[in-house]
Amino acid sequence: MNFTEIDLFGVYVAPISAMAVISWAVTIGLRRLAVRLGLLNYVWHPAVFTLCVFVVVLSSITLVSGRFTPITGQ
């Protein structure tokens, strides 16, 4: 697993920040779907539930991208 910095207009940013933005967008879509279907009415605390969904999505993106990143230098 080899994560390298991302060059964003001359500024190097950590790859976790790009993954966090992607997972935030996915979480917003999932939250809108849950609101439309009425699923958030069945959870105790919707904000904490949304945070947990964000963490699960971010972890999944990190694991998938780490698995398929080519390992160099061997």
Spans of 5+ residues with little confidence (pLDDT < 50)? none
C-alpha termini separation = 12 Å
Percentage beta strand: 5-15%
Q: Residue-averaged pLDDT, rounded?
A: 88
In helices, the fraction of residues equals: 55-70%
Succession of helices and strands: EEHH
Question: Helix- and strand-based class?
Answer: mainly alpha
**Structural domains: how many:** 1
Anisotropy-based shape: elongated
Number of strands: 2
| Strand numbers in spatial order across the main sheet | 1-2
Helical segment count: 2
Biggest β-sheet, characterized?
Answer: 2 strands, antiparallel
Q: Gyration radius, to the nearest Å?
A: 16 Å
Produce a short descriptive summary.
The protein has 74 residues and is mainly alpha-helical. It has helices spanning 15-37, 46-67, and strands at 6-8, 11-13.
Please explain how this structure is put together.
It is a single chain. This protein is 61% helix and 8% strand. It contains two helices and two strands. It has helices at residues 15-37, 46-67; strands spanning 6-8, 11-13. Strands 1-2 form a two-stranded antiparallel sheet. Helix 1 packs across helix 2 (46-67). The two termini are 12 Å apart.
Sum up the structure in keywords.
2 strands, 61% helix, 2 helices, elongated, mainly alpha
Topology:
Blueprint: E1 6-8, E2 11-13, H1 15-37, H2 46-67
Antiparallel strand pairs: 1-2
Helix pairs in contact: 1-2
